[in-house]
TrEMBL record:
Signal peptide location: 1-24
Native species: Paenibacillus prosopidis
Protein name, entry field: Ricin-type beta-trefoil lectin protein
Domain Ricin B lectin residues, every copy: 775-912
Keyword Signal among UniProt keywords: yes
GO BP, sorted A to Z: cellulose catabolic process; xyloglucan metabolic process
Length: 914
């Protein structure tokens, strides 16, 4: 399945200034004023869901393996449980470009050393130059050097390589092959400083699509290979090969350690070299294609170059001159244990499937991983596919021969054999990393097993997230794989969302949350009757397509569902805003709302919808038929925009967005259906907003934002309608440009789901069991009676009695709660300034509770412990007994005492913040 560029595109519009020279560990940024510890985990897809552009085995340390991705960073293999460990989650919003990894080198002399070339785009979508990032502890911590040019981890040709290489004899020397005509660069100090190799003059001529804003850049240099036999330990390797994206001379060689260079004589021309692999017997294998990939390639060859004799031999399994060759060659590997064993993959054989070839005689003869059996379309495979780790990889397709489901792969730009284990092979595809542990069964007529080897790799770009509140806790819209219904966050989904085959927006009916709508882009070439909208009435378990869609639309855009699902409003990507009151069987264009407007439904009033465009806000009170512009001003007119209506409160709207360029950027709140908005002064930037279950003792939902607050970028939560914020991630958990899609869980306080642009979906949970804000003022309500903890007769005297009384909002019912720093709190009555106190430092059941001047005694210190139902119990630290309403009474004036903790209703308190 092709990766779609739109999944990356929202980041293009935001200006990014990446600053840096060197850092150790994580980026040195100031901490927010308040923070809370969270645990962060990936929502499991089982397969990654994105393009694996490179797999790199260390040649001297067994099981040291790295995988690089185009927008999702880099991973290290964990042999213990056959999983992958993400290594650059510290990269944040402002330096998001580093999540694109264009090359990787692992040191064969000092295996702890690791280097990556980081940067996502070489065109105008990214303003920052690229980096060489280096680690001396296998990627646990990093330092970096910024280059004087851009690096393109998500540009065409990203699976060519590796274009960053370490001298295997003198490992302080590295070479890097740049894009965009920037040539060859060299470091002699372990990657700290870099200088251009001016003697290397062919910087590449190939441009995939001249004049195109994405495909219109010079590809540049593709790979670098050292001949380790031409050096000794501590002395620089003398013979080095470089592959260049040039259809003329494309392979160059230096025999003096990189001082001078010349084209290798006799080399083939006409195609572009993707990989150059040198076997220990002196044979170099080079895979060629007429495109640079990862999507293109319709012709290609595989050549063997004998470095001793200078003889070039075309060893293509299917040569480009054959009518059966409709593909290039990409992934290429040589078995280090058996240098005559070579494998190569097609790039791209879209139909009926990718082909992997294997030779045991240096390319003289080949066998295929699958072949036709008795003629087309019958087929026999030498392998079995095990997708139990990610069952959705069958794409919900029942294939007809010669196709199979799941496919062997596509976009196989890299394929590697473990240098220590001839049975282990891995290869990357457009959706996952596949591999086998019994590869040599191929050679003896047996069957080898190909399985998903992508555990903990999460590389999807997230478009939208919803947590409806019943059924599955999360449903996602994703750039490459449409999306999933996540019934279990820790288990891979069984299937992807289909029909449409992509998803750009999701919404559900707040008052009937089993009704869900999603829109995307239908595959009309495969089915002319396909619809770009789907509806579910069972929480996303099953989907159906309405009988119609707005005339002329190609789909996409944004969907909004009325609170009771009586109406749908669809802002299409191309033909404007339409509404349907017939569950999609007919559509009518909405009036007085601009094309391309963002839309949302009120979560209480089923007739009310909202829209925003170019800084103007609109409201409909007739189910989306007509909109009226409100008088609201001050909203962002450009940049990303994300707005949502609050569940449970009609007309309550939160809007995040804007841009640095415009100077209008932040978070806005309306309580009057968008008639006016107030900008929150404590939020400098905001790009995503969502809601979750209210904190214990609160009624207003928790608000989650991806924002900059107090000068710190991160994920934040507010439990008091935005008055105060707590940062809930840290500098080690930033995930690039993340959080434009963000939502809380309506059933679990503290749970937040965060979508990223290449690291999949994260979910965070608070580690704090007691979300009390020190220094804040609360009213304590006993839910059994509904009455407040009260100082009798509004007295200010020491010894005044404490009882329950009807909540009247008086200051004698308000308590300032302050953290004592020893896991206890003091409660000070606002009207008197005196403490909640156990009389006489008593410990017996029934001892009276009163107010007294605060002396810091144990009988004035209380542990506040959250109950599972959102209430709290208050435990006197002196006696270990609970604050208790005598006899579970409900009458005004019922006394309050201490009593053995029973967990009963007389000992439960709601903390309502003032």
């Amino acid at each position: 399945m092709n990766q779609r560029l739109f999944k990356r595109m929202w980041i293009m519009l935001l200006a990014v200034i990446c600053i840096g020279s060197a850092f150790a560990g994580t980026n040195p940024t100031a901490e927010a004023a308040s923070s809370e510890a969270y645990t962060w985990k990936s929502v499991n897809t089982g397969a990654g869901g994105g393009f694996i552009s490179g797999i790199i085995f260390n040649s001297t340390e067994q099981n040291l393996i790295y995988a690089r991705t185009d927008i999702g960073g880099v991973y290290r293999w964990n042999q213990t449980d056959s999983s992958w460990i993400p290594l650059i989650d510290h990269v944040g919003w402002d330096d998001w470009g580093k999540t694109g990894v264009d090359a990787l080198a692992t040191d064969p002399v000092e295996p702890n050393r690791l280097y990556i070339a980081a940067g996502t785009y070489t065109n105008g979508w990214e303003t920052s130059n690229g980096y060489i990032m280096r680690s001396t502890d296998k990627g646990n911590t990093w330092q970096e050097t910024q280059l004087p040019f851009k690096v393109g981890g998500n540009m065409p040709g990203r699976s060519m390589g590796e274009r960053l290489a370490i001298d295997p004899n003198k490992n302080s020397i590295l070479f890097f092959g740049a894009r965009s005509g920037n040539g060859l660069w060299k470091s002699t100090d372990y990657g700290v400083t870099w200088n251009k190799v001016t003697s290397f003059t062919n910087t590449g001529t190939y441009i995939q699509v001249p004049g195109h804003d994405y495909q219109g850049d010079i590809m540049g240099l593709a790979w670098i290979t050292f001949d380790s036999r031409t050096g000794t330990a501590g002395n620089a390797t003398q013979t080095i090969y470089v592959g260049v994206a040039d259809t003329g001379n494309s392979v160059y060689r230096s025999t003096d350690g990189g001082v001078t260079w010349s084209a290798v004589p006799g080399q083939p021309t006409g195609y572009l070299p993707h990989h150059g692999v040198l076997a220990s017997d002196g044979n170099m294998y080079i895979s060629y294609s007429n495109g640079i990939g990862p999507y293109d390639g319709t012709k290609g060859d595989l050549w063997r170059f004998n470095t001793a004799t200078g003889v070039w031999t075309n060893i293509s399994p299917v040569p480009s001159s054959s009518p059966d060759n409709s593909f290039g060659y990409g992934g290429l590997a040589v078995d280090a244990q058996n240098p005559g064993t070579v494998m190569v993959a097609t790039l791209n054989s879209w139909y009926p499937d990718a082909i992997i070839y294997r030779s045991k005689d240096s390319g003289a003869t080949w066998s295929r991983a699958w072949d036709y059996n008795g003629g087309y379309p019958n087929r026999v495979n030498k392998y079995t596919m095990d997708i139990s780790a990610a069952p959705w990889l069958d794409w919900g397709v029942t294939a007809t021969l010669p196709e199979t489901s799941p496919k062997l792969g596509w976009m196989i730009g890299d394929l590697e054999i473990d240098p220590f284990n001839s049975n282990r092979m891995m290869y990357g595809t457009g959706a996952t990393l596949y591999g086998t542990n019994n590869l040599t069964n191929w050679d003896n007529g047996g069957t080898f097993t190909i399985s998903v080897m992508a555990k903990n790799i999460e590389e999807t770009a997230v478009i939208d997230l919803i947590s409806p509140g019943s059924g599955a806790p999360l449903i996602s819209a994703l750039g490459d794989v449409s999306g999933y219904r996540h019934s279990d966050l820790t288990a891979a989904p069984a299937k992807i969302l289909k029909n449409p085959d992509s998803t750009s927006s999701l919404d559900f009916a707040q008052l009937n949350n089993s009704f869900i709508a999603r829109v995307g882009f239908a595959n009309h070439s495969a089915n002319s009757n396909a619809k770009s909208i789907a509806l579910s009435t069972d929480g996303g378990v099953n989907w159906s397509s309405p009988s119609s869609e707005p005339t002329g639309t190609n789909g996409g855009g944004m969907i909004a569902v009325a609170a009771n699902n009586s109406s749908l409003v669809w802002s299409t990507s191309d033909v404007g805003v339409y509404y349907s009151k017939t569950n999609g069987s007919s559509w009518t264009k909405s009036t007085v709302v601009p094309n391309g407007a963002k839309v949302a439904a009120d979560r209480v009033n089923p007739n009310k919808f909202y829209a925003v465009s170019a800084g103007k806000f609109y409201v409909s009170t007739d189910g989306g038929a007509t909109f009226t512009q409100t008088v609201a001003t001050g909203l962002p007119a450009e940049g990303a925009l994300n707005f949502k209506a609050l569940p449970g409160v009609e007309g309550d709207i939160w809007l995040a967005g804007g841009s640095d360029n415009s100077g209008v950027y932040g978070l806005w709140h309306s309580t009057n259906s968008g008639a006016s908005f107030t900008k929150l002064s404590n939020v400098q930037e905001a790009d995503g907003v969502g809601f979750g279950k209210a904190a214990p003792g609160q009624s207003y939902p928790a608000i989650y934002v991806s924002a900059q607050i107090d000068g710190v970028r991160g994920f934040f939560r507010s439990i008091d309608s935005g008055a105060t914020w707590v940062r809930i991630n840290d500098n080690n958990h930033q995930y690039g440009r993340a959080g434009v899609s963000i939502t809380g869980d309506p059933n679990l306080y503290g749970r937040v789901y965060v979508g990223t642009n290449g690291r999949g979906i994260l979910y965070g949970d608070t580690t704090v069991s007691n979300p009390i804000i020190s220094g804040a003022t609360y009213t304590l309500i006993n839910p059994n009676s509904g009455k407040a903890l009260d100082i009798a007769a509004n007295s200010t005297a020491d010894g005044a009695n404490v009882h329950i009384w009807a909540n009247n909002g008086g200051t004698n019912q308000q308590w300032t709660i302050t953290d004592n720093g020893d896991n206890t709190y003091r409660l000070i009555a606002v009207h008197s300034g005196k403490a909640l106190d156990v009389s006489g430092v008593g410990t017996a059941n029934g001892t009276n509770v009163q107010q007294w001047t605060y002396l810091g005694g144990a009988n004035q210190k209380w542990k506040i412990i959250a109950n599972a139902d959102g209430t709290f119990k208050l435990i006197d630290s002196n006696s270990g007994k609970a604050l208790d309403v005598n006899g579970a009474g409900t009458a005004d004036g019922t006394n309050v005492q201490i009593w053995t903790d029973t967990g009963g209703s007389a000992q439960k308190w709601q903390l309502i913040r003032k």
